[in-house]
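User: Before I run my own analysis I want an independent prediction to cross-check against. Here's the chain; please return only the structure tokens and, at the end, one sentence I can use as a sanity check.
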Amino acid sequence: MTNEEARKFAFDSFLTAFEAGNEGMINNYFSNDLKMYNHSVSRNYSLEQIKSAVLEVHKKYQNLKSEIKDVIVEDNRIAFRVEQHAFFVPDDEDVNMDVMNIYTLTDGKVKEWRLWFRQNTLANKV
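Assistant: Structure tokens:
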């Protein structure tokens, strides 16, 4: 896979498939027996748990804007960083998020997904 193909896969699988209303597309990119690890929670998430959480994420993070920034591909792995901006409803504030993802692919789908993120409040809030 080239860097450009990996960038497109990252964009389609992380941004497009996880837009509210696009949950059905998630199966195009992620294996049914996906293992997903989120650094902030000490447990694995199944594909069905992830799909059911999409709408909840969009309720918490309104007007979510995302941009793929850095993509590295090697063998069957893709690592990419995403910058995100949203209004975080629980705290009533605008936030920036820096998200690092590492995918391990099997048969063209994500078999393992490791995710780390950092969320910061925007300093310019009125």
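Sanity check: The chain has one domain: 3-121.
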